[in-house]
Design brief:
The complex is a heterodimer of chains A (309) and B (300).
Chain A: H1 2-27, H2 34-39, H3 45-55, H4 61-73, H5 87-122, H6 127-141, H7 144-158, H8 171-200, H9 203-210, H10 215-252, H11 258-267, H12 271-299, H13 301-308
Chain B: H1 8-14, H2 22-32, H3 34-51, H4 53-56, H5 59-64, H6 90-126, H7 128-142, H8 146-157, H9 161-188, H10 191-198, H11 203-239, H12 251-259, H13 267-294
Classes of the chains: A mainly alpha (309), B mainly alpha (300).
Chain lengths: 309, 300
């Protein structure tokens, strides 16, 4: 098992280097320079030039990348051109909102998706099944930001139950969480339903039924464990998408999280901040995937077997 | 390759005389899938709307021209979905928006299919160091969420149409490469490829004439999904102001403008969102239907 984890960890290193290089190369095309942004465009050109010179802005790309990555390895992602504060500090300031939002949504989506998926598989072709399957297709087709706006119109404008924007209280998180969770729940529900249907057909389920185990025990004890295997992987992948998706949803609900931070820095051509934020999110997502794979290896005896031989 | 292969006429004689055509059988299966047929109908309607947008509403007069006397009118007989903050007919804008969304999505999918397909075929067929290199690159690209990658690209290069296309294709190419690669690997192990090799066919001929026709189905399924996904990403980018720029009537751009009046004039939000959802819905159901119809295990 240790060997498996070590192998996966080692594989992550080149990928993360690649990710950082790719983002660095893409963002090297951003027009604008730190001096203009920090001192204003009206500052005398010599002053701007000197400022840029000091920051190493005119160094050749490879030198800049090596400096960047060697600092990044020590946890220093540089300073924001706009505010002058450390990029990591800005991220830490905005992180709680985004983490709360994405963790709440993935939990809600997983719970809702798995529960409804099992119900509609067990009661295949019932009214509930039809309702869930068609609901899932509808939610999966909606763009998240539009779903968010519709929820605001229903629950804030007409019913006046929940606030439409801000991050003050727990009430502010209800609509954004639903917005992020519903399309993901739809996807998880469809997958759970189809794997559950496959599992129910297996011989060992027939054996369990034949030996007189109750319906509840067969579904929730015998079938669920196996049916959930592929679902676990998808939940991990979805968590990554959710962190990307918060960019749009935070905009809809005017929440100041990582997403809004990134959009603000893009508007201001604040390269270190954009770069640091994307890199941070990519590392988070890679780490999540890794964690999911390891969890998967723990619950799937086949993976474990391959590495304990 | 103009000369006839000497072995082809006897091979034809050996095959059973009357076989139902493969396309016909796929269409029969597809037609039985109600949801997929609904999707196909919606999609054809969208295509017609996009093609005849100029007949439905005049571009200059209704989509671009700002009429200050009819700002933010609620839906009525003349303006079915109301007018926006600059006095333009929302419905006319949504109709013309279909052109932008569909053309970006089709162009993006075409480029991604060709580029990703070529990469996938090369890596899957030849394997070796090229396969290793390209697949590692794809692992890297795929570990950045495609939305973030698109955002980074348009943020760096600016958001004109060609950069938007680039941003979309970079997110899609890896998926095509993976799908085509695994299909080619499976197909290359089949007997007919072996037979073609024995006959002395070149690698190029084997890939294009023998393997390609056998894997085209799943690639088309992936393409329909890709069109849907590009429509969603374009709308998302436009919504945060990084995609298609106003005054172009792109659906996401319209929603971004509508957001400011969401609390007072919620009707502005409805039409563009429904348009996106319908387009995505139709493409996804067509894709699902095609996948089922192509699956030989599913009953005829």
């Amino acid at each position: 098992m240790g060997k498996y984890i070590a192998k996966r960890l080692l594989l992550m290193i080149p990928i993360l280097f690649g990710v950082s290089l790719l983002i660095f190369l893409i963002l090297s095309f951003v027009p604008g320079n730190p001096g203009e942004i920090a001192l204003g465009q009206d500052a005398p050109p010599e002053v701007i030039h000197a400022y840029n010179e000091k920051l190493g802005f005119y160094d050749p790309l490879p030198v800049k990348y090596i400096t960047y990555i060697s600092h990044a390895l020590r946890g220093d992602l540089g300073n924001s051109w706009r505010t002058g504060r450390a990029v990591t500090q800005e991220i830490a300031l905005k992180l709680p909102v985004t983490v709360r939002l994405s963790v709440l949504s993935i939990l809600a989506a997983a719970f809702l998706g798995i529960f409804l998926g099992i119900l509609s598989a067990v009661k295949q072709y019932s009214c509930l099944d039809t309702a869930c399957t068609s609901g899932a297709i509808v939610f999966a087709s909606m763009p998240r930001f539009w779903l968010g706006m519709i929820l605001v119109i229903i629950f804030s404008v007409y019913l006046k139950w929940l606030p439409s924007h801000g991050i003050g209280s727990w009430k502010n998180y209800v609509l954004p969480t639903l917005t992020l969770a519903l399309p993901t729940a739809a996807q998880i529900m469809r997958l759970t339903r189809s794997t559950m249907l496959e599992t129910i057909k297996q011989d060992y389920i027939r054996t369990a039924n034949a030996k007189g185990a109750s319906e509840t025990s067969v579904v929730w004890k015998h079938a669920l464990k196996n049916a959930l295997m592929p679902v676990v992987t998808v939940i991990g992948v979805d968590f990554g998408y959710l962190m990307g998706g918060t960019v749009l949803v935070e905009t809809v609900f005017s929440m100041s999280g990582i997403g809004t931070l990134m959009i603000t820095s893009i508007r201001n051509q604040d390269v270190p901040q954009i770069q640091g934020t994307i890199l941070f999110l990519a590392v988070c997502i890679c780490a999540t995937m890794l964690a999911v794979d390891i969890v998967y290896a723990f619950i799937d005896p086949r993976v474990k077997l391959r590495y304990t031989k | 390759m103009k000369h006839k292969t000497p072995s082809s006429p006897p091979a034809q004689r050996l095959s059973p005389p009357k076989q139902p055509s493969r396309l016909g059988s796929i269409w029969r299966k597809f037609r039985k899938n109600k949801l997929a047929m609904v999707g196909l109908t919606i999609f054809l309607c969208l295509l017609l709307i996009a093609l005849f947008a100029d007949v439905i509403a005049d571009y200059q007069l209704k989509v671009i021209f700002q009429n200050r006397h009819q700002r933010r009118l609620a839906p009525c007989a003349e303006f079915w979905f109301g007018t926006d903050a600059l006095g333009r007919d929302v419905l006319a804008r949504v109709v013309h928006g279909s052109r932008i969304s569909l053309s970006i999505a089709f162009a993006g999918t075409l480029i991604s299919t060709l580029a990703g397909g070529t990469l996938g075929a090369l890596t899957g067929y030849f394997g070796g160091w090229l396969d290793n290199l390209i697949m590692r690159l794809i692992d890297i690209v795929m570990s950045i969420p495609s939305m973030l990658l698109s955002i980074a690209i348009v943020a760096a290069l600016g958001s004109d149409i060609s950069n938007l296309l680039l941003a979309m294709t970079i997110g899609q190419i890896p998926r095509f490469t993976r799908v085509v690669r695994s299909l080619v690997i499976t197909a290359a192990a089949d007997d007919y490829v072996e037979a073609a090799k024995v006959c002395g066919a070149s690698n190029r001929r084997i890939i294009v004439r023998h393997i390609l026709p056998n894997i085209i189905g799943p690639v088309i399924v992936q393409s329909t999904m890709s069109v849907a996904s590009i429509i969603l990403t374009t709308a998302g980018l436009s919504f945060i102001g990084l995609g298609v720029q106003p005054p172009a009537p792109e659906w996401g751009t319209m929603l971004s403008e509508a957001r400011d009046f969401m609390l007072t004039d919620p009707y502005l939000v409805i039409a563009p969102g429904i348009a996106i959802a319908l387009a995505v819905f139709s493409l996804n159901t067509i894709g699902d239907g095609l996948r089922d119809a192509l699956d030989p295990r599913s009953g005829d």
